[in-house]
Amino acid sequence: MKYLMLIMFICMIFPYKQSHGQETFSPLVGGKVPGSIEELWKGYDPRKEPIDIQILKEWEEDGVVMKVLRYRIGIFKGQKAMMAAIYGYPKGATNLPGLVQIHGGGQYADYRAVLTNAKRGYSTISIAWAGRINAPGYLVDHEGVKLFLENKTNDPNYKITTDWGAVDGYHDPCRHPENSFVEIPTASWTLDSLKSPRNNSWFLCVVGARRALTFLERQPEVNPEKLGVYGHSMGGKLTVLTTGADKRVKASAPSCGGVSDRYNEDPLFRNTLGDDVYLKEISCPIIFLSPANDFHGHINDLQLAVKEIKSKEWRVTCSPHHNHQDNSECEVATQLWFDQYLTGTFVLPQTPQNTLELKTENGVPTFTVKPDATQTIKYVDIYYTQQGQVDGKLDDRENSMNRFWYHANATNKGNSWTAELPVLSIDKPIWAYTNVVYSLNENVMGAGYYYGFYSAKNFNLSSSMSMISPEQLKEAGVVATMKPSLTIETFEVEWEKEWFTYQPEDWPCKTHKLYDDKWKAPRNAKLAIEVYSANPNKIVIGIDRYATEIKLKGGNKWQRIVLSANDFQNAIGNSLPSWSGIKELRLGPMETLNEKKDAENKKLELGAKWIGGKPLFRNMHWITQDLM
Questions:
Q1: What are phi and psi of 9, to 5 degrees?
Q2: Which of 118, 139, 232, 517 could form a disulfide with 104 if both were Cys (CB 3.0 to 4.6 A apart)?
Q3: By mean pLDDT, which of 7-11, 100-104, 603-607, 618-622 is the weakest?
Q4: What's the angle, vertex CA 34, arms to CA 31 and CA 35, rounded to 5?
Q5: 614: which DSSP letter?
């Protein structure tokens, strides 16, 4: 008996190190590697192998059955690979649509996405392709993945998680530090000994996601004809790759990824793992969530993506100013999209149609949008920028994240809205698009990009973007009528449209106005603003990695604040050298700055918890030497 127990213990610790039968992928023949998406997936059947479910934890929460489990990904080089995941569905329900949720880099498979989807009538599997898991009583964080990889079973924080076996589909940390999602490695731990796209982690993770679809198909509560997939960031790319590779996906919703990984220098990577080759295979309904300032899924590449897909059923939603995060009006589009195509309980309006007229009497371009008015329109916003790239070069990351979007005041004329788009220069392009915000009949609850709960009472649909080159502006006779301004912000009606926040329930706000040439600081200028606070408080004004803390006296008077560049300091005490090249301006009650010095992370905490009602602002402007 004791020997049997010893054998069981050894198998528990080393469950997948032995050979487990036929390989998932046949060896390459004659040294020929897959050179296209067709060759890469030829002969692969994600339904062929047993699913081998292993339950690690099970509980019920608010009428939802929840499980932490593992399922079989495949057999690679004689070793079984197992994907950890969180799965859940409303207890007692049948014929449910099924969703595969794919986390991004640095993120987790998270129970909150599963739970909120279940409460809306979906079964969901959130896959931990990088090994990280967040569930009540079952946490595998960055250090937890290391414990698993190092097989430290005696550590009290050790938890079983994703095991890629002989290959490496992990991320942050990877099992092998030299592993890379942007290159095709060749090593002892890769699937093929030659340079092959099957060695890349994107490929392995898509295999894992396709097997998640197989898992859903085999659950008795799931309707196998109603499967969807969605994910954020790296999960957005994996969503596009999975949707393009697997026709079982009936609806798809990538966010902040899946449109821009098309410029890799390696042609083998581009032809087998690039976003565009998978976009061209997508025939199911798809909605792209793509914030206007996102560093990973560029809004200009989105214009290519919607032309590349085969599907005629698509929408886009693009929050202005945001980078890799979103507001609830955009995030809820994922849930509504699945409601339309997997449950038939909602119908989204059609994409807003817009035109940009360049030849006008006064030389100012005119933008007109005709939204679908079959549902209640709450408001229409037109945004444009002159900081878009048209040079054909690799995207400028800093410019993508910080470009400023003007809000154009639109006039309603029956079934359309029209606005003038004055420009500062005809030597720079115009990029313009529309957001149409509709009212929902009832609030929709969900878990957002980073799994924070939200409640949406409106939803946003965006138009395609008009992209006009300087040559077109000049040919049409456009005139630069906008002038540089010392007044940065009046804080009057609709000023928030050109600012943004990731904390909508509170008052902190940010803007990229100072990155635009219209508000470029004159030499030796000072920054001035007036603030009203009923109570004594502290306010923090931040610029890029620098900030300053100001004490507010409170009372019934406005307090004027005047600041020089050297009043702003970073976490190690260095002053902002000048106003030149500044990108982001912030207002808030408190802030933590971070800076590395001698390989050590330094922190500087400024401000304090706000007391009383929200502050009021007015008259933010530059003071020049002449006015001092």
A1: -65, -45
A2: 232
A3: 7-11
A4: 115
A5: P
